[in-house]
Amino acid sequence: MSKQFDVVVIGGGPGGYIAAIRAAQLGFSTACIDAWSNEKGAPAPGGTCTNVGCIPSKALLQSSEHFEHANHAFSDHGITVEGLSIDVKKMLGRKNTIVKQNNDGILYLFKKNKVTFFHGFGSFIKAESGSYEIKVSGKSEETLVAKHVIVATGSNARALPGTPFDEKVILSNEGALNIAETPKKLGVIGAGVIGLEMGSVWRRLGAEVKVLEAMPAFLAAVDEQIAKEAMKLFTKQGLSINLGVKIGEIVNNGTSVVVNYVDAKGTEHKAEFDKLIISIGRTPNTTGLSAEAVGLALDERGFVVVDDDCKTNLPNVWAVGDVVRGPMLAHKAEEEGVAVAERIAGQHGHVNFGTIPWVIYTSPEIAWVGRTEQQLKADGIDYKAGTFPFMANGRARALGDTSGMVKFLADAKTDEILGVHIIGPMASELISEAVVAMEFRASAEDIARICHAHPSLSEATKEAALAVDKRSLNF
Q1: Is residue 120 annotated as involved in ligand binding?
Q2: pLDDT averaged over the chain?
Q3: Domain limits, CATH 3.50.50.60, in the chain
Q4: DSSP letter (8 states) at residue 163
Q5: How far out from the chain centre does Cα 145 lie?
Q6: What residues bind FAD, as annotated (predicted)?
Q7: Is 454 a residue of the active site?
């Protein structure tokens, strides 16, 4: 017998589980279907983000950063460390514990908010009488009926044609998070967020890391001044970053991998690696959804087609997160999930793509919101820029981390903040002030006039805002 719900969410990642919780809070009988399992076969909701993305990568980044500090920075503080070593197995165990805590936390939130959870794959069966039948394929099969369906099935790592992931030698983000011991030589194809973060983890632990990027510019989506600073700092740390590369034949030998490539000058190279991480983007996860059973429209790349409100071509069917247009960011998915639940309730859900922050959790961190300087130039917008280096910030000096800067871009006439770009310590936390300011259409002068605690890294934000009017006080 089928089970009836007001709202069924397919997918329990950041977009899906948040949408389910918000729908339940609004009084709808709600179910969430998710197929992720842990190594024991138990439910592991949270999607890519919790299981093989945001959360575990940050755990490894933190562990590897501690190791790097002990290896190189502690002596500056008068701390002597002898016989330093890394237990990779224990590091991975800590990472797995953190993942499980997040999985269990989501299951607790479902119970707290009276969301019915189904462990299995969700797919459409048919549409009938203003409702949708959905099959749950798991240890036992279930049939659910819902008036509203929210598709939140996420994305998968994109493989290079003819080079499948074996997660032993040729790795996606999932395999990159489970390398059992530090490789001597690590190759990374793709100098994006995942490639740089995972490359940083294993470089800190002793691997020789070579990054191969097809684009001629480094971090093309980032403000050019910030990207150049990042390139300089990462190269100084020991990452070998090669731009304008054309990848040729890749040979997996079972215990190593050989990559043939041509560099930007046209010179042919052959490089052998113990492990190869491929991070060239992600594809929408719509395989197995049975979209055709109900006529759900997908585009030529497999994304669910939606309008600005996340409505699909079908009445009362919505889609959010990585499976639709827009940035593949967990927090973007969460905001869309909340907005859709509220729209189902007749409210006016809000997602402003112009104030979605981006973060790369390398060291130094890179974070930004709004437009870059090159975008403003291309759009012919008259702007003013102000920058402030962390080397002139007292708290950064005390931390021993003075690399990078804060950069403000403001409209030349109105002074409205158009973009804020940060490379430096705790950039992921500092960017929130800029997001709030831009959401309320603040001016650079507004930030410049706000009292910031001293000594704090946030003073660099104030000083960069002051620099827009060429009146920085500490540089």
Answers
A1: no
A2: 97
A3: 3-157+283-351, 170-280
A4: B
A5: 33
A6: 58, 122, 153-155, 322, 328-331
A7: yes
Which one of 66, 69, 72, 454 is the catalytic residue? 454
What is the CATH architecture assignment of 355-468? Answer: 2-Layer Sandwich (3.30)
96 burial type by CB count under 10 A (0-12 exposed, 13-18 middle, 19+ buried): middle
Tokens of 191: 């100098």
Q: How confident is the model at residue 117 (pLDDT cuts 50, 70, 90)?
A: very high
- In angstroms, rounded to a whole number, what is the distance separating the alpha carbons of residues 76 and 269? 40
| 97 known ligand binder | no
pTM of the model as a whole: 0.97
pLDDT-based confidence at 1, cuts 50/70/90? confident
263 in a known ligand binding site: no
Decide if domain 170-280 falls under CATH 3.30.420.40. Answer: no
Residue 109 has pLDDT above 90, yes or no: yes
Assess whether the previous peptide bond of 364 is cis (omega < 30° from 0). Answer: yes
pLDDT, one tens digit per residue, over 151-194 is: 999 999 999 999 999 999 999 999 999 999 999 999 999 999 99
Beta bridge partners of 156: 283
User: In terms of CATH, what superfamily is 3-157+283-351?
Assistant: FAD/NAD(P)-binding domain (3.50.50.60)
Whether omega before 425 lies within 30 degrees of 0, making that bond cis, reads no
Q: Report how far residue 64's alpha carbon sits from residue 202's, in angstroms, rounded to the nearest whole number.
A: 8
Q: CA-CA distance, 138 to 12, in Å (whole number)?
A: 15
Annotated binding residue 420: no
Is pLDDT above 90 for 133? yes
Examine the pLDDT at 139 and tell me if it is beyond 90. no
Query: Does 455 sit behind a cis peptide bond, omega within 30 degrees of 0 on the bond before it?
Result: yes
The DSSP 8-state label assigned to residue 323 in this structure reads G
The answer to whether the Cα torsion of 120, 126, 128, 131 is positive or negative is positive
